[in-house]
């Protein structure tokens, strides 16, 4: 299993968790804490603090997701750097124009300057 595959599995898992945490929250301040009746007073088990936990877990999961995406990009770029193919010597000679001693270029390598 390649490094990129491991990163992709982790990215999908963290993204799923992030979606679940966001879906539990209510944008108008209700969310999970209002479901348990923790409107204005402190109830059993500290239900009012669930919004703090959900907020911190959202930011933490978002940061982890961003870091995993960047690391997966680095693993792709590090593993598949482009390699230049070396031309065979005969093709290389045909692509470089020949020069005589005066510094002017000639079109052929035979030395026949007509």
Distance between the termini: 63 Å
Classification by helices and strands: mainly alpha
Q: Give average pLDDT, whole number.
A: 74
Strand content: under 5%
Number of helices: 4
Shape: rod-shaped
Helix-strand pattern:
HHHHEE
Report strand order across the widest sheet: 1-2
Q: How does the major sheet shape up?
A: 2 strands, antiparallel
Number of strand segments: 2
Which residues form runs of ≥5 with pLDDT under 50?
none
**What level of helicity do the residues show?**
55-70%
Cα Rg: 32 Å
Keywords: Cell membrane, Membrane, Protein transport, Translocation, Transmembrane, Transmembrane helix, Transport
Function: Involved in protein export. Participates in an early event of protein translocation.
Protein name: Protein-export membrane protein SecG
Subcellular location: Cell membrane
Structural topology:
Layout: H1 3-24, H2 31-35, H3 50-79, H4 89-95, E1 98-99, E2 105-106
Antiparallel strand pairs: 1-2
Concise overview:
Its main location: membrane. The protein is built from 4 helices and 2 strands, in the order ααααββ.
Could you characterize what this model shows?
Helix 1 (3-24) runs antiparallel to helix 3 (50-79). The chain has a two-stranded antiparallel ribbon. The chain is mainly alpha-helical and 114 residues long. It has a domain at 15-24 and 48-79. The protein is rod-shaped and about 90 Å long. The protein has four helices and two strands. 56% of the residues lie in helices and 4% in strands. Strand 1 (98-99) and strand 2 form a beta hairpin. It has helices at residues 3-24, 31-35, 50-79, 89-95; strands at residues 98-99, 105-106. InterPro entries: SecG (IPR004692). Involved in protein export. Participates in an early event of protein translocation.
């Amino acid at each position: 299993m390649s490094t990129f595959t491991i990163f992709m599995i982790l990215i999908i898992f963290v993204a799923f968790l992030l979606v679940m945490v966001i879906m539990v929250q209510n944008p108008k301040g209700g969310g999970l804490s209002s479901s348990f009746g923790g409107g204005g007073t402190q109830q059993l088990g500290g239900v009012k603090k669930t919004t703090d936990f959900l907020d911190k877990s959202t930011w933490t999961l978002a940061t982890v997701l961003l870091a995993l995406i960047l690391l997966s990009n680095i693993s792709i770029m590090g593993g598949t750097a482009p390699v230049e193919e070396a031309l065979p010597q005969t093709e290389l000679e045909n692509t470089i124009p020949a020069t005589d001693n005066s510094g002017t270029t000639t079109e052929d390598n035979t030395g026949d300057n007509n």
